[in-house]
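Quick one: structure for this chain?
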Amino acid sequence: MAPFLDERVPPFGKSPFGGRAAGYGFYKAAARALRFTPQELARALSGAADLDVKLKNSAPDLETITAYVGGLIAGS
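Got it. Here's what it folds into:
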């Protein structure tokens, strides 16, 4: 399902799954995602992408994550 999961990881030279990566994780993620509407999933993905951009900028990590979690709690 996802061949990159079986790729060798330096410096160990082997896959963390030992060549037995299965699609179970993707199956579970998809099953959990079915509870949400496409709009809710898009909003969550957009928020995570915004947080990723902010963390890659010069903003302090703790303050950035604190503001993100505060926004989630406030419902914005």
